[in-house]
């Protein structure tokens, strides 16, 4: 009887209420996720599309809460709104550095790519904290050299939009230390291509939404072609993300794109599987 009497307005009201409750719940548990050891890093290999060889890997955060994986698509925005993303980002970078060093020690040095939220660059204080944190990892692990050259930071276009010269200074300082900067989800933001000219970056990642459209025909392929030729002109390397099919891979190869990430080759995997895979590749 209740369902019958409900009008649209009540229905949507309920939905909004449920969503708000879910957000509040996630936020509550997210606060304790680090101390409860609920986070884990997965690694997704990035390969040479011609040889299949693993050339680097993206680090992807996983949250196992009460026996269930909660998607980063859900919890990262909540972490960003609440500011928890700063501590979470630091946790991710510590673990990634630990892994990079471990790989080095096993004679499997491989660059790791880390996602960074734009929130972490939002103020001068946060920028300073971001830089200092690398020094604190170095101290914590008593490292004589810090593996900056094995790390890439993936940022999004919205950072480029922030017309703030000190973000350029920060990125330049990070590159001076040896880190690479990659523009993630390229083409999905509102940035104009001209931002790229003035922005200190090394690499772009073509968003998977463009890769998905390869099958839809020439007009969609033309977009990827344009991104690739522009990247060449600006001397940026290119990664194609979300490659799932043979047809997508064939087109990527035609475009001479030198790095590919996607389910066609590998899904993100736990660290142990990743280490095993690398060891196997090395023994081939
Ligand atoms: P992203 O940075 O664009 O990461 C790539 C996403 O695409 C990952 O989703 C990955 O699992 C997925 N993916 C890779 N290959 C394929 C494919 O062939 N097909 C399809 N359909 N998907 C593919 P994931 O791991 O769920 O992460 C989602 C987003 O959450 C990431 O998107 C990133 O924006 C954010 N994220 C993940 N880890 C972190 C982190 O440590 N810090 C921050 N700030 N954000 C993170
Ligand atoms: Ca990414
Ligand atoms: Ca991406
Ligand atoms: Ca994304």
From TrEMBL:
Domain EAL as annotated: residue spans: 23-282
Source superkingdom: Bacteria
Ranges annotated as spanning the membrane: none
Name of protein: Diguanylate cyclase/phosphodiesterase with PAS/PAC sensor(S)
Organism: Shewanella frigidimarina (strain NCIMB 400)
Residue window of the full protein shown: 469 to 752 of 757
């Amino acid at each position: 009887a209740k369902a019958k009497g409900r009008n649209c307005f009540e229905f949507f009201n309920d939905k909004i209420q449920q969503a708000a409750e879910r957000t509040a719940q996630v936020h509550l548990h997210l606060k304790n996720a680090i101390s409860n050891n609920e986070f884990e890093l997965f690694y997704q290999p990035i390969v040479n599309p011609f040889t299949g060889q693993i050339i680097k890997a993206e680090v992807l955060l996983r949250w196992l809460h009460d026996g269930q994986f909660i998607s980063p698509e859900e919890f990262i925005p909540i972490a960003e709104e609440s500011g928890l993303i700063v501590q979470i980002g630091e946790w991710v970078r510590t673990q990634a550095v630990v892994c990079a060093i471990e790989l080095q020690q096993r004679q499997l040095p491989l660059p790791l790519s880390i996602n960074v939220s734009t929130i972490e660059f939002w103020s001068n204080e946060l920028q300073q904290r971001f830089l200092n944190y690398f020094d604190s990892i170095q101290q914590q692990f008593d490292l004589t050299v810090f593996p900056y050259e094995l790390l890439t930071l993936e940022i999004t276009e919205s950072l480029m939009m922030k017309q703030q010269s000190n973000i350029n200074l920060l990125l330049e300082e990070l590159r001076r230390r040896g880190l690479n900067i990659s523009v993630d989800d390229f083409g999905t933001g509102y940035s104009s291509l001209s931002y790229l000219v003035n922005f200190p970056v090394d690499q772009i990642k073509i968003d998977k939404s463009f890769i998905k459209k390869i099958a839809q025909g020439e007009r969609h392929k033309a977009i990827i072609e344009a991104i690739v030729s522009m990247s060449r002109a600006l001397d940026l390397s290119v990664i194609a993300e979300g490659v799932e099919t043979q047809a997508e891979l064939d087109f990527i190869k035609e475009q001479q794109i030198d790095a590919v990430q996607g389910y066609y080759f590998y899904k993100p995997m736990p660290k142990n599987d990743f280490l095993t895979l690398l060891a196997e590749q090395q023994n081939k």
